[in-house]
Design brief:
Elements: H1 3-12, H2 16-19, H3 21-31, H4 36-40, E1 46-49, E2 64-79, E3 89-97, E4 102-108, H5 113-118, E5 124-134, E6 137-141, E7 144-147, H6 153-158, E8 163-166, H7 175-185, H8 198-203, H9 209-217, H10 222-253, H11 266-273, H12 280-293, E9 300-305, H13 311-324, E10 328-332, H14 336-350, E11 367-371, H15 377-389, E12 392-397, E13 411-417, H16 424-431, E14 439-444, H17 450-456, E15 461-465, E16 475-481, H18 486-501, E17 505-509, H19 520-524, H20 528-533, H21 540-549, E18 557-560, H22 566-577, E19 583-586, E20 599-604, H23 612-619, E21 629-635, H24 642-652, H25 656-666, H26 669-673, H27 693-709, H28 717-726, H29 729-737
Parallel strand pairs: 4-6, 9-14, 9-15, 10-12, 10-13, 11-12, 13-14, 16-21, 17-19, 17-20, 18-19, 20-21
Antiparallel strand pairs: 1-8, 2-3, 2-5, 3-4, 5-6, 5-7
Length: about 750
């Protein structure tokens, strides 16, 4: 067994002992690379071919890019400036081309001499820098460059073969310098230990790990790249799925109190008083949940459902079943506004069944308490008392529920709303409040494609609600191009007035509050769109003011945002819910869970500043009653921009799963996996969650088989080593708490 650690050593060598301290420091700080193994797993983003040029036409704004191109012309200009008043300032403008487009490079001051000598027309080179816009044209200012002299020994050697690897790079370290560093450590790849069991590798005809590492960094043909990618994707998928399979296996060993509802108890009484029948989806998902609750192991279930698909109803019935069986249920919401809203809607749905111990309460009734951080001391003391005595069967609250002071009589079920806003530590702390681990139901309204669910929530079983309850209305969505067609925006405000005239209400959503002190750091870090537009995102306070004085004059307009006092927020929401306010101008605090069936229209300002999933979430706040919903996406982005295409795709479909795929394809995987990859870096470097659906599904099956046969991986020491590397301490805890 001692062979394994010995074999691992060459890859565990710190980079500073191999590359020199300066380079190693930049790699550690900017790329998160610390050891030889880390560097070997820093894969090229793409490959340039000698004879082929990058498409300069599709350069992303504000990103560090590396391009291979030819100098078309170079001109030296002199100009006068504060630093060089006598016209002695120098600026070198170089135009490079690749057949698909042209790009301007600029060099200033003393920086012009070397490029002026070297970048002569006809010269080919690799250029790296940050793409910016100047005079509406793309340019690279002071790019680093490396001449590609076909004849010089070193160039031919370094860029072996026809394929030049282009690495994810930073301003401090260009792609070709990373390439040279990898050249130095590449011999160590021979020592890489293969985590995949031989049978799996042979059965799927995958190359060995050392061979894959050589081929990914120094491919001679495109087939080399394909071989290496297939193999490295399997590593990532398989090791991650092994971690999750072991989690599920360990969870299945935990004890839990089975919770079966009484035949004529609270749940039956609740179902009898429902004024409508549950959808088939709600019924089948409820059955899955009740089956889980009846077992002696804790349920771990993820409930996905479109906005408005009736998840809260399903969760409430699960909570009532647990109360029926003598336990207590806790529901965690990410914000106070949401906790108060859940509390109101649960109490309304339950009626006299929520009045346990009170006059007029039904005989099976229980008590439903709210617990949030901003409650008064007396109300809070009473709520805590009701929890510890078991008087309250259901508690709804924010993370205030997790504090040490909160004690339960017998916690049987935890429902977490909006998973992605809730840290694992919090879920874990709440689970620790049961005498035995309570059952766990996680709800999310963000539709998650199946493979992402398998990767991120792989330790949870998944249920999906995809039908909308009867009586929900379709939502029409339109893009309003405010800059190209200002009259469209005027028409949007007319539509709002019309809806209000018909007795309905409207939301106007803005990206910013508007009372922020401009943080000097934030001022520098502008997004590319800001740079292009030269204006900050629209703010709630400004927009509300302009609307009340302008196009919506005479209507009752109120504002809602995250920095208001909880009581003020609640008062605003109550007035809006009661129909006293016509138009609510808000930030995304209304994104989750706000339920006002009379609101029929939503105008989203600067819609291009929001993500696809977020827009879909926001849009779900209208059309919740019998009247049709309307969502207007206002943007100033030009027609051809990616931002506009994104908005067009949101307007074109109401299918959240379809949109979540679009979202994933447009964003980098790491953002989507977010916290679930909470190691130092995203552990997915090669695997694309959407494109590699089959690999993930197969890896999950293989992993389940391996873990069932050998839970501790005793016979697979190399896999165990790879798993330990993936689950450094932090991630191990993360998955355990999941």
């Amino acid at each position: 067994m001692d062979l394994v650690p010995a074999l691992q050593e060459p890859l565990e060598q710190p980079l500073k002992s191999v590359l020199g301290p300066a380079t190693a420091k930049v790699m550690a700080e900017h790329l998160g690379l610390h050891t030889v193994g880390d560097l070997l797993h820093h894969y090229p983003r793409r490959y340039e071919e000698r004879g082929q040029l990058t498409h300069l036409a599709d350069l992303p704004l504000d990103e560090h890019v590396t391009v291979v191109a030819q100098v078309a012309d170079a001109r030296l200009h002199t100009f006068a400036s504060a630093k060089a008043p006598r016209g002695k300032g120098q600026r070198l403008e170089v135009t490079i081309t690749d057949g698909s487009g042209r790009l301007q490079l600029v060099f200033f001051g003393h920086g012009v001499h070397k490029p002026h000598k070297e970048l002569l027309p006809g010269t080919r080179a690799m250029f790296a820098g940050k793409v910016s816009v100047f005079n509406r044209r793309l340019q690279l200012a002071h790019p680093a460059y490396e001449l590609l002299r076909g004849d010089s020994e070193e160039a031919v050697d370094t860029w072996a073969g026809a394929l030049i690897p282009i690495y994810p790079a930073t301003a401090k370290l260009e792609s070709w310098k990373i390439g040279k560093a990898i050249q130095t450590v590449l011999p160590s790849a021979q020592e890489a230990i293969d985590p995949l069991p031989d049978s799996l590798r042979e059965g799927r005809a995958l190359v060995s790990l050392p061979e894959a590492l050589l081929k990914i960094h120094r491919p001679h043909t495109k087939a080399d790249i394909a071989d290496a990618r297939d193999r490295l994707k399997w590593d990532e998928a398989f090791v991650l799925q092994i971690a999750l399979a072991r989690r599920r296996h360990a969870d299945a060993q935990l004890p839990a109190v089975p919770r079966k509802p009484k035949p004529d108890g609270l749940l039956t009484a609740f179902d009898d008083r429902l004024p409508f029948t549950l959808t088939e989806g709600q019924q089948s998902v409820s059955r899955e949940i009740f089956d889980d609750l009846a077992t002696e192991h804790p349920m771990h279930r993820l409930l996905q459902g479109e906005v408005g698909s009736g998840k809260t109803m399903v969760a409430l019935r699960a909570m009532l079943a647990v109360v029926d069986a003598g336990g207590q249920a806790a529901m965690l919401a990410p914000t106070e506004v949401l906790a108060q809203q859940h509390h109101r809607s649960v109490v309304e749905m339950m009626g006299e069944l929520a009045e346990g111990g009170m006059l007029g309460g039904a005989e099976q009734a229980t008590k439903v308490v709210l617990l949030t951080g901003s409650m008064g001391a007396a109300a809070r003391r009473q709520a805590l008392l009701d929890l510890v005595t078991g008087e309250a069967g259901i508690v709804i609250g924010t993370h205030a529920l997790i504090e040490d002071k909160v004690q339960f009589h017998d916690l049987g079920l935890v429902v977490v709303d909006e998973q992605h806003r809730f840290g694992v530590e919090q879920r874990d702390a709440l689970r620790g409040k049961g005498k035995q681990p309570p059952h766990l139901l996680v709800m999310t309204a963000t539709p998650i494609p199946r493979t992402v669910a398998m990767t991120v929530f792989g330790d949870l079983e998944t249920s999906v609600l995809d039908q909308l309850p009867a009586g929900r209305s379709p939502i029409a969505s339109h893009v309003v191009p405010a800059a190209d067609k200002p009259h469209f925006l005027a028409r949007a405000w007319e539509r709002v007035r019309e809806e209000v005239g018909n007795g309905h209400q409207a939301y106007v959503v803005c990206p910013r509050i508007g009372d922020e002190d401009e943080d000097p750091k934030a001022a520098k870090k502008k997004s590319p769109e800001d740079e292009a537009e030269k204006r900050p995102p629209l703010a709630v306070l400004d927009v509300a003011d302009q609307l009340a004085k302008g196009p919506l004059q005479g209507l009752k307009v109120e504002v809602l945002h995250g920095r208001m006092q909880p009581d003020d927020k609640d008062a605003v929401m109550r007035r809006f819910a009661a129909g006293e306010t016509d138009v609510l101008v808000a930030t995304t605090v209304i994104e989750v869970g706000v339920n006002v069936p009379n609101a029929t229209v939503m105008v989203i300002m600067d819609a291009d500043r929001f993500g696809v999933s977020q827009l879909h979430q926001l849009r779900g706040r209208v059309g919740r009653g019998s009247a049709a919903g309307l969502c207007l996406l206002v943007t100033e982005m030009p027609e051809a921009s990616p931002a506009r295409q994104r908005l067009n795709s949101v307007a074109a479909t109401l299918d959240g799963f379809e949109l979540s795929r679009i979202d994933l394809e447009q964003r980098r995987e790491g953002d989507v996996l977010g916290q679930a990859q909470s190691g130092t870096r995203s552990s997915l470097r090669m695997l694309a969650v959407i494109d590699d659906e089959e690999i993930i599904a197969e890896a999950r099956e293989e992993a389940a088989r391996v873990v069932a046969a050998d839970p501790d991986l005793e016979h697979l020491p190399a896999l165990r080593t790879a798993l330990d590397a993936l689950l450094d301490e932090e991630r191990e805890q993360y998955l355990e708490k999941g």
